[in-house]
Structure formats: C-alpha cells, structure tokens
Specification:
By secondary structure, the chain is of the alpha/beta class. It is about 40% helix and about 20% strand. Bound molecules: adenosine-5'-diphosphate and magnesium ion.
Amino acid sequence: MSHLKTENLSYVYGEGTPFKITALDNVNIDLEKGELVAIIGHTGSGKSTLVQHLNGLLKPTEGKIFLDDENIWESKSKVYDTRFRVGLCFQYPEYQLFESTVYKDIAFGPTNMGLNEKEIDERVRSAAKYVGIPDGMLAKSPFDLSGGEKRRVAIAGVISMEPEVLILDEPTSGLDPRGREQILGLIKNYREKTGKTVIIVSHSMDDVARFATKVIVMNDSRVENSGTVDEIFENSSRLSEIGLSVPQITEIFIRLKKMGYPVSEKVYTVEQGHSELMRLFAERGIV
Ligand SMILES: Nc1ncnc2c1ncn2[C@@H]1O[C@H](COP(=O)(O)OP(=O)(O)O)[C@@H](O)[C@H]1O
Ligand SMILES: [Mg+2]
C-alpha cells in the first residue's frame, strides 16, 4: 500500500521573477510503509526541495502529495497534521536549533502538538536518551555543542514527535567517521525497532549500499531512476555521467574484473566483497 506519494510534483523558486529556478520537474515517487529510502543526486538536483514538500513545508507549484492516499494540501488542518506525522531533519541543524536550551529545542515539536507537560517531559527524555544525549546536556545551549551533538539534538527534536515517516537530509555530512557511524546506527535501529518509514538524503554511496531498501536517483530536478541497491548501482557508467559514483568497493571489483580476475562486479558492500574474494580464493585452493 502506498504510504507517501507525489504525483506530477513541480516546484519553482522565485516564480514571476528573473531569478526563477525550476527545482522539481514532474516528480513521481511512491513509498511503502517501513521502507528505508535513500535519495541520491548531484548538488542542486532538487533533493532538499523534494523532502521539504513531503512534510508540507513547501507548497507545490504544481502536482500533489499524498500521505496514506490523502492529499496533504486538501485542507489547512491536514497540512498542519502532516508536519507532525512526517518529521524532517534539515540538512543544516543550525536551521532547526534556535531555542536557548537543548531541552527546549527537543520539546518544541511535542509542545506544538499540544501534549501536556508530563508527556512533553517524557518525550524529551526518551528521545534524548535514544540519540545518546545525556541528561546533563539538556540545560546547555545548543550552540555550545559539537557538530555531531547538534545533529543528534536535531534528530531527537524530530523523533520526539514520534512521526510515522522520518526524513533526514544529509544527516552525516560534516561528521567524522565515528560520528557518521553513530548516526547511521541510530537511524537503522530506529527503523528496525519502530518499523517506520525512513527517508535519507545521502552523498555517500557506500552508506546507501549498506542500508537502503530503495534508492531514488535525482538528476536536474527530475527522478532519473529508482529501484533496489543492485538495480541502481549496476549501471556505474550512467551514474558517473550524472555526477555520481558507485560504492568504493564496487569500483575495486570493476577494476579487478578489468585486470582479468573472474569476479562479479555486482559487489556493493564490504561484506559482499569479502565473500566474493573468499569464493575466488576457495576456487583457486588458496584457503
Ligand atoms: N531558497 C531557494 N531560493 C532559490 N533557489 C533555491 C533555493 N533553494 C534551492 N534553490 C535552487 O533549487 C535547486 C535545487 O536545490 P536543492 O533542492 O537544494 O538541491 P539539493 O538538495 O539536491 O542540493 C538548485 O538549483 C538550487 O540552487
Ligand atoms: Mg540539499
């Protein structure tokens, strides 16, 4: 069943001005409940504009968005509801954090949902715990935190609304490898634990290959392709034409193949690479 869908969605920034930019051009996507969707595409391809439509933050210039088969722009109350049901973590956490304390920032969503103080407090503490923000940090100003901590507070602020769909726009950009692993682990665990739909905009093909159940490729304001990790990464030459790449491990296997080794090029994760090499070694009596 369709959970979240766009129908002929187009969006123009600065309509009616000389600076008009078509950021989305007839975009159709259809996501099912519980999927972990990765959106990839070169900078400026329209990814952030697309995800800001999915929670009703931007209003389509043309086309429609459906959540559980209902048009989110059908009425004011529907679009208001959508902002709580579909939680969006911005590309830059600085855009999302503006309160004087971490506690207030995480409480912002639940407060707007009209929950009572006790419920809000429970939501804030459990979301903070979930993302690994210790109690002692709740009274701090969000601006005194490290990049990775800010990111986690921003995620906690969205999770505290318990949205049906969680969207994260480049949640690991600017983080060191350890910070990245923490955030990715958190997101994966969230989806496995809650069964909720998760959408991640990502620049890292290695990460996408590891976690996505579905990949959407954006190119020049349009959806270029969508499918499973295997379907998307098997066409490496098309991906490089549109400014993207395949995972690093895939590049290694493509090279090995060119060098004459009888390996598969359809290797997208380090684990797959390991078993492919083991197969080759066993075949040659090396192990
Ligand atoms: N607030 C804005 N005003 C005008 N143009 C914008 C704005 N935000 C994005 N754009 C333009 O829209 C296009 C798509 O941008 P964006 O959705 O941010 O892409 P991505 O997230 O894939 O990098 C780009 O050409 C970008 O310059
Ligand atoms: Mg973006």
